[in-house]
User: Fold these one by one.
Assistant:
Number 1:
Amino acid sequence: MRAGIAAWRSHTVGCMRLCDLASRLLSSPFAMVVLPRGCAGCGEPDSVLCADCRALFTVWPSRQFPGLPGGTLACARYSGRARSAVLAWKDHDDRECDTVFARYLASAVDMMLGRIGAASGVSGVGSDHRVTLVPVPSSGRSVRARGRPHMTVLSHAVCRLLCGEYGYDAVVADVLTVARHGGRSVSLSSAQQRHDRMGDRFRVRGRLHDGCLHDMGCRDVGVGTVILLDDIITTGSTLRGCADVLAAAGIHVSAAIALADTPPRGGSSRVS
């Protein structure tokens, strides 16, 4: 029995490594010459994301959200070609979308920080003010299936843009982890069902002391303005669960940013 389990584990690890190698080869410049790619949203040849599909990521749907002063802001509506592009990146390992999506998320963060500043009576968040990006975590099972923690990778790309091109003092605090697997939120049937599943799903793997967040890498991260980064907003239950567990640890989230937003029934989201 033990020999069988060991063989199965070895086979699984080997398959994952082969899949990761294949993904790297297919995303290499050489592969682009031999096997030209298509747009992640519509399939138009020789484009990571064509001009028409890029325009879908500048819609900026937003919501008011209990407990988040800035509410939520997304780049696109989760439908049609925008949905196809997000799923190609998220579930089908289209890593070339990282750079494109990072730019739209960085724009959304900049827009949100301007709103937060305006609401507090100032022109915006200054470059000397710390901006902490907290990626919404995936379960270990999802990370293994995808080959990487996709939101953590994207959050670091967004952080580099915020620091290098927007002039913010931004950091990534990867301090949330999934304590248990609660099912894919987009596959659950109701808002209440999603909320119930989120109950104790998340944990904070750091601590707050003297205004600094000590993460698992033993860094001292001044908190400043905390923003959650996610891929898709459905009912908001995942964001609520993350914000609640962070608040319990003394870390108060100001807003949440996502690639795409699925408006809840009743159309309570608005376009900026």
Note: Residues 48-271 form one domain.
Number 2:
Amino acid sequence: MPYMKKIIFLDIDDTIIFNGQFPDNYLEIKEKIEEARKSGYKVGICTNRTYDKNVKNIRKVYNLNRIILTESGAVYHHKYFNNDLIKNINVKLYKYLRENLKEYNIELSTRKKSDIKLIRVSKGRKVSTSLLLFKMNNFEYNNIYEYIRNIDFLEKYTVEKDIENKKIYIYNKDVNKIGGMNKFFEDNEIYFITDVETLPLPKYKNINVYSVGNDNEFNKYASKTFRDVIDAINSLIGKE
């Protein structure tokens, strides 16, 4: 059976955004995305991030289609990867950390000043949560990461490390970007362009993972490896 559409999903961080900023050649990337769209591809986003004003702005700047998977591929618009929403875990974790890490000021908010900020689960965030540890040095960050990773009631959840941005992501173990793409877009031909994937990904006949960058440790999980997003899109539209 022929696929309905051809979709390119772009990861955000370290793929089309670097250290929170658009790269110097973002206009070239934007032009290449437009070429892909004119060649018949839809171009969207798949990211760990929640769907907030920053993601909306990135979509607008790059003129992407409104095909956006967020929270590690778990959310597409108001459709969810599964029904195991994380609100109760979020509150439970907040109470647990307040009780057991009394040496730190912990808040269930991003607005209040604190050592550890636990993202409040809201309308825009249903299936994952994040901890922000901006004030921590790397040693403190790693200690807290290991502590949280070994909390018993988080056994069914993935606790993901992002030491560069001093964040810790928590989401359901059965949630992953490739699985989300397959669940929501299984009848489409899909190309996922990302910097690295730190875990082996499930394989589906209709999904190809294109890795960009120089991190050879993780490129083994990709179908093909390219220098950057422009090279990867050139390959798809026949301009290698």
Note: The chain has a mean pLDDT of 84.
